[in-house]
Specification:
Order of helices and strands: HEHEEHHEEEHEEHEHE
Shape: globular
Largest sheet: 5 strands, parallel
Number of strands: 10
Structural class: alpha/beta
Strand order of the largest sheet: 2-1-6-9-10
Helix content: 25-40%
Distance between the termini: 20 Å
């Protein structure tokens, strides 16, 4: 699955680069993306398009960049360093900063570097994961107001740990040209089936991801897809 996602991403970037412009890509965190990043850092390490791709994050924990919990650290170790991505193309969320100030700073950085559509940043690709509770980026159930926020970035709080995080809002996510979900594991199967087979329920943050004028793709491994009707 990680190889399919990597191929999908590169094939999506190529037309953007052929237009002579830099692509804006928002990466996600978690265990599944680490495998995907590893594929990019190995099989696609020589892809020339990295020179013309700007890297952002859909969310980040409020931790220093050398923390084991840092989404940036994961991408750097298994992808950026191996593929020699230009440091100037990497726009990390500075999780070590005061959360609200960093949310404002990162919002400004996105505005300065990402093309706008209808006054809202339009990423060429936004990569997302899915939590067992149906959260995506760092928008958790019970905090759906963050999804509908008019801001570019918001400060979220993990409902179990109380850890603060910085996240793109649904307003920005749904303005993307392409949104790619990557989901693996049997522990996600029930929530995957609920979201994909009852898309209008709106029960979970992930079910609200519906690009207004873009393409939404779900990449699932067999375990994550095991409860979908077509596999029953």
């Amino acid at each position: 699955m990680a190889m399919e996602i990597a191929l999908d991403l590169v094939n999506t970037l190529k037309p953007v680069h052929s237009e002579g412009r830099k692509a804006a890509l928002a990466l996600s965190g978690g265990n599944t993306p680490r495998q995907f990043f590893s594929v990019l850092g190995n099989l696609y390490r020589d892809y020339e398009g990295w020179q013309n791709t700007l890297f952002f994050w859909s969310d980040e924990r409020c931790v220093p960049p050398d923390s084991q919990e840092s989404n940036y650290k994961t991408a750097k170790e298994v992808f950026f360093d191996k593929a020699a991505v230009p440091p100037g193309n990497i726009y990390r969320i500075m999780g070590e900063n005061e959360p609200w100030q960093e949310a404002e700073r990162y919002s400004s950085e996105i505005l300065q570097n990402v093309t706008l559509r209808l006054g809202i940043p339009r990423f060429d690709i936004v990569c997302l994961g899915l939590g067992e509770d149906g959260h995506t980026a760092s928008i958790f159930p019970g905090n759906l107001d963050l999804f509908d926020s008019s801001r570019i970035c918001e400060v979220a709080v993990h409902p179990a740990t109380g850890q603060k995080r910085i996240t793109l809002t649904g307003t920005v996510i749904n303005n993307a040209a392409r949104v790619i979900f990557a989901v693996s594991g049997r522990n996600k199967a029930e929530i995957v089936a609920e979201i994909l087979e009852n898309p209008s329920s709106g029960m979970y943050p992930a079910s609200l991801v519906r690009p207004l004028s873009g393409v939404l793709t779900w990449h699932l491994d067999l375990e994550a897809a095991s409860l979908l009707t077509q596999f029953a």
